[in-house]
Design a protein that fits this description.
- Helices cover 40% and strands 20% of the residues.
- It is built from ten helices and nine strands.
- It has helices at 7-19, 35-47, 65-70, 75-84, 95-98, 117-120, 124-139, 151-163, 193-211, 218-230, and strands at 2-4, 24-29, 50-55, 89-91, 143-147, 169-173, 235-244, 259-267, 270-277.
- Strand 2 (24-29), helix 2 (35-47) and strand 3 (50-55) form a beta-alpha-beta unit.
- Helix 9 (193-211) packs antiparallel against helix 10.
- The longest helix is centred in the last third of the chain and has 19 residues, at 193-211.
- The protein is globular, with a radius of gyration of 19 Å.
- Residues 29-30, 36-37, 39-40, 146-147, 149-150, 173, 175-176, 183-186 line the site of adenosine monophosphate (AMP).
């Protein structure tokens, strides 16, 4: 695996590969890699001829400085994981490389960045779009692969790519879960054994919502899930919403074609998100 730490070196190599006829599949990560990331790399390898991964813990998307400070950064293990996954290229810049100046950034996202995750993490999606734009400019992938786990992020990146006319195809990949149903996440390593067990209730609530989708009204499904999760000691629910999957507006009827349930909660000190497509 080739490793580049500067934008110039990564770009030069990838341009050369592109000119030689390779198609570039890209997976953007913040490291602390797990099977969810691994699956994205596998999908990239199946669909393109050069798999590129980046690891960069992007400071501008963290609204909580403690979360940024505590974010796991096991770089050597990550490199080993990527080598085992037969990833072709790793882009591993430092902060100075990605943010050489004190730049300003704002993209109008028509409110999609202000609801759900955006409401609980102000500025988060402005930071996400800022870094993803820069990374896409360096890598210039044919296809970029993102996880459904960060569903709102996928919609936001799709919106940005369309708005700025960035020539890349975006693909959303399935959520990889632990045996107990907990969605894999880099933050899971910070859960105690007891918290890890508790965290599985988030998926249980989502599964229950899916199970009841045809038999109960949307309002009832949502209320049941909230009551269920609020009843579990150690889970501090932030939101459980049932939304139109295209614009993430809350729904009270089943008229929308695509409907998704999304959840965010704190288990101990760790903030977790998850979702399930209801239809
Ligand atoms: P992160 O390193 O958390 O920023 O995630 C990098 C990419 O991996 C994003 O596209 C995530 O949506 C995706 N991802 C994270 N967790 C999972 C998971 N459990 N299953 C599938 N994809 C995931």
């Amino acid at each position: 695996m080739k490793i580049f730490t500067t934008r110039a070196d990564a770009s030069a190599y990838l341009n050369q590969q592109k000119n030689a006829g390779k198609t570039i599949g890209y997976v953007a990560t913040m490291g602390a890699l797990h099977k969810g990331h691994h699956s994205l790399i596998n999908i990239a390898k199946k669909n393109t001829s050069l798999a590129v991964c980046s690891i960069f813990v992007n400071p501008t998307q963290f609204n909580d400085p403690k979360d940024l400070e505590n974010y796991p950064r096991p770089v050597e293990t990550d490199i080993r994981i990527l080598e085992n996954a037969k990833c072709d290229v790793l882009f591993l810049p430092d902060e100075g490389e990605m943010y050489p100046g004190n730049e300003k950034w704002h993209i109008e996202l028509n409110g999609l960045d202000k609801i759900l995750e955006g409401a609980h993490r102000p500025g988060h999606y402005q930071g996400v779009t800022q870094i993803v734009k820069k990374l896409l400019e360096v890598i210039k992938p044919d296809v970029a692969f993102f996880g459904q786990k960060d569903y709102q992020q996928f919609l936001i990146i799709s919106k940005m790519v369309k708005k700025l006319r960035i020539p890349v195809q975006l693909v959303m990949c399935p959520i990889v879960r632990e045996d107990n149903g907990l969605a894999m996440s880099s933050r899971n390593v910070r859960l105690s054994a007891a918290e890890r067990q508790k965290s599985a209730y988030l998926f249980k609530a989502l599964e229950q919502a899916k199970l009841n989708f045809n038999s109960k009204p949307v309002g009832q499904i949502k209320e049941d899930a909230i009551t269920y999760l609020n009843g579990i000691e150690g889970i501090e629910l932030e939101y459980f919403e049932i939304c139109n999957a295209i614009n993430l507006q809350s729904v009270i009827t089943k008229r929308s074609k695509n409907i998704i349930a999304l959840v965010a909660a704190r288990v101990g000190k760790i903030r977790l998100i998850d979702n399930i497509m209801l239809r």
